[in-house]
Specification:
This protein is 6% helix and 41% strand. By secondary structure, the protein is mainly beta. It has 2 domains: 83 residues, RimM (Elongation Factor Tu (Ef-tu), domain 3), CATH 2.40.30.60; 64 residues, PRC-barrel domain (SH3 type barrels).
């Protein structure tokens, strides 16, 4: 399991005074500032975060050390991470996406189906992108209790009961 979890991303500058457009990936979107200081993935930069106001598709926020529109624009696309120990514990049936990536997926008969490459959400529900062994293609597995009845983080495995024909 990763010691850092992605909690947000910078979508660019907001205005001319160094504010940024901030997308929050936390369960309570406004709580992203509670996990500060947030760092870049490589840990090279660290920011204190102040949410200024809600805007369309996120928040206008101030980051420590960012004072101009140009500095804010230079951070476009930067993902922000918080240490895992600052985040709340999850109920038994909820998982951080970072914990699922890399897990091996087996069918209910024990045959390996692949490894989780990514967790996607396009609005309706989460999907596990599973890299099929020995192939370049991936399969999108619905991340539902019916299709994924068992997740064992300690063993690094997922047991799936995929819809018929999905992995053919």
């Amino acid at each position: 399991m990763s010691d850092k979890i992605c909690v947000g991303a910078i979508a660019g500058a907001f205005g001319v005074n160094g504010e940024v457009r901030l997308k929050s990936f936390t369960a309570d979107p406004e709580a992203i500032a509670d996990y500060a200081p947030l760092t870049t993935e490589d840990g090279a930069q660290s920011f204190d975060v102040t949410v200024v106001r809600a805007i369309k598709q996120g928040f206008a926020a101030r980051l420590s050390g960012v004072r101009t529109k140009e500095e804010a624009d230079a951070l476009r696309g930067t993902r922000l991470y918080a240490p895992r120990d600052r985040l709340p514990s999850l109920p038994d049936d909820e998982y951080y996406h970072a914990d699922l990536i890399g897990l091996t997926v087996f069918d209910t008969g024990g045959a390996e189906l692949g490894r989780v490459k990514a967790v996607l959400n396009h609005g309706a529900a989460d999907l596990l992108e599973v890299q099929v062994p020995g192939a370049s293609n991936t399969v999108l597995l619905p991340f539902t209790m019916a299709a994924v009845p068992t997740i064992d983080l300690a063993a690094g495995r997922i047991v799936a009961d995929p819809p018929e024909g999905l992995f053919e």
